[in-house]
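tool_call: predict_structure(chain=1)
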Amino acid sequence: MLPILPSRRDRDGAFLSYTRSICPDCRGLIDAHLVLKDGQVVMQKRCPQHGAFEVLVSSDAEYYLRSLTYTKPGTLPLAFSTPVVHGCPLDCGLCEDHLQHTCSPILEINDKCDLTCPVCIVRNQQRYQMPFEAFTRAVDGLVEKEGELPLLLLSGGEPTLHPQFFEFCDYVLRGPHQGRIKRLLVSTHGRRIAQSPGFAEKFKASGAYASLQFDTLKPGVYPKMRGVELLDMKLACIERIRELDIPTVLVPTLSKGDNDDEVGALIEFGVALPQVSSIVLQPMAHVGDGGDGYHRTPQGHRLTMPELHQLIEAQTGWLKADAFHPVPCSHPTCYTATYLFRLDDGRYKPLPDFVDIRQYLDAMANRAVMRTDESLERMLLDSITELWSATKVGEDASEVLASIKGFLKETFSSRNPLTPDQIERVTEARSKAVFIHAFMDAWDLDVTRLKKCCTHYVLDDGRLMPGCSYNNLYRQQDRRFFPEARPGGLVSIDG
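tool_result:
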């Protein structure tokens, strides 16, 4: 049977590339085209049962095309779990056709949550808690496939509600793989940290980072996005984080028309908090029990990468759109990031303003966090030569130069050498990262992006699944959460 391609009447723009996607109605696998249209990039596809669909992929075609030049070859995992039989995304696990190892693994330890968020991208059934044996098996399998990992994210549900939560933290950070997983993040809404001093103290002692949902600084937004007003609780959580010096990642979900006018304020808020190492902006994906119905369709509500870059520049004034570059380990439309370096006078300046961009991209390649080894030292040493000519930062050159020299003396001095872990801590205290992570939904799911994905869910049977593949196609077949689910069910309906 021949594939059913989008018809000529559907393709009213200039053809850019062919990919595969899914039907937003039936989730069947179908062919799709990316086309250039009115200065934008759109995906056009046709389902034989449900007709034609078009969705915005990038609001700036020039940016999109330029971003593709940042792609770097991936690093393969030490082992795969599934063979290639039907092709992506029908063989997830990771299959041998996947092009990138796991940079950012997500391990869901429950599906119980005390919130029902209208923007939630998962499908909590309020009945699963991962047994300790299943947790250790999943972590063991992850380390077997990766050797070492820069981070592991515990998620849910609300993972802090798991009765063995701190035992899980201990196993990751002080168990048989001690030192193999460098950083443990916990995706949380923050209620237990805010409301239980004892829990917050134990959280601090655990050594984990709080990956804190933090969507707004204004009243009236949380009721729309999270179902209830949470602003006072969130600010109380931040105060507890300050008091106990809990390392934190701020994670705002951004919904056009709800809180996209606050993106600059949220970045400024995170940059001002010493405990915040990074801000991860997540434009809303229309998937999950909440996201499926938050808007009737994503049309008119989707925030693309270049839109967010421009919003950040307009709302901060100092953090320019051109400071953001695609993270080379993933597909360029999945992640963009910039790293901010704190000068001696307290201001932050984007690293791309004064370092060689090729070295900068190499320091980010195939990792979820920037390298803190000799590549960082070399990049900053080379920037000193560049700064002497003052061609990049003008009147700030002397301040930047003095700040870099002081940092290098503190961090890489041969007289008082630091361990790699100490270098990472010093670097984190002197810098902050701003990431934009765009999850896909059934409207814009692109198999080309899936194959380069580095954000993977860790299943307790040993498989790893690209986040967007799992959320759109496999989650409702996961018998931990849906014990009544029948195996199989993914089909290619056009070929």
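agent: The two ends are 6 Å apart (CA to CA). Proceeding to next step.
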